[in-house]
Amino acid sequence: MDKVFANASQALEGIVADGQMIGVGGFGLCGIPEALIAALRDSGVKELTCVSNNAGVDGFGLGQLLNTRQVKKMIASYVGENKEFERQYLNGELELEFTPQGTLAEKLRAGGAGIPAFFTRTGVGTIVADGKEIREFDGDQYVMERSLTPDVSLIKAHIADRSGNLIFRKTARNFNPNVAMAGKITVAEVEKIVEIGELDPDQIHLPGIYVQRIVLNENPEKRIEQRTTRPSKGE
């Protein structure tokens, strides 16, 4: 099956709606589906719950959806680079479910594996465990965490074939595979598309069974979240 769509807007057509849970891959600004996020913004859907490691930066990544007030709730582990996020949260305009980073990854992985919940020691004795079931195993306390299965997942990969088999590039594998597996419908933004059979099966990071739609973005911006420079010699 050829899963390739002409552009990001077409790839989201008919599958995004108000009130959905949207999973978004990436780590910081690394490996985020830039074109798909922009298309989601342009779609005008609102009251979204976004599941992502972080919330982008002001005006870029998921920060665009915060500017347009399309996000009702964020489920994330790190949000420190976004002033608009801070403003909305402190003013009671945005719901936030802080989740430890490893727990968030496992909530997505478990969702993709069909596991509805799991127990972890992370968060026991903190506000993370408030209202959740606590159980003892081998003398230690564990908190029960529910898995996550977004209605739609938007991810970024480096290469795809037309059936959706994906190869990620370096640290872009952070969160993207788990987000893809967890989504009920997954849309992959990629920089290169090859024909079926061209990818070495041993090099495929995510099988195409987890991907329903593909869109090509050959030249993403790949903005740097925090640019650090050194003075040249003699300065």
Concise overview:
This protein is 20% helix and 26% strand. It is an alpha/beta fold and 235 residues long. A hairpin with a 2-residue loop joins strand 7 (134-137) and strand 8.
Give the topology:
Layout: E1 4-5, H1 8-12, E2 21-24, H2 34-43, E3 48-51, H3 63-67, E4 71-76, H4 83-90, E5 95-98, H5 101-112, E6 117-120, E7 134-137, E8 140-146, E9 152-161, E10 166-167, H6 176-182, E11 185-194, E12 213-216
Parallel strand pairs: 1-12, 2-3, 2-9, 3-4, 4-5, 9-11, 11-12
Antiparallel strand pairs: 6-8, 7-8, 9-10
List keywords for this structure.
single chain, alpha/beta, nine-stranded mixed beta sheet, three-stranded antiparallel beta sheet, 6 helices
Can you walk through the features of this model?
- InterPro entries: 3-oxoacid_CoA-transf_A, CoA_trans_fam_I, NagB/RpiA_transferase-like.
- Keywords: Transferase.
- This is Succinyl-CoA:3-ketoacid-CoA transferase.
- The chain is an alpha/beta fold.
- The chain has one domain: Glutaconate Coenzyme A-transferase (3-Layer(aba) Sandwich).
- It is built from six helices and twelve strands.
- The chain has helices at residues 8-12, 34-43, 63-67, 83-90, 101-112, 176-182, and strands at 4-5, 21-24, 48-51, 71-76, 95-98, 117-120, 134-137, 140-146, 152-161, 166-167, 185-194, 213-216.
- Helix 5 (101-112) crosses helix 6.
- The longest helix has 12 residues, at 101-112.
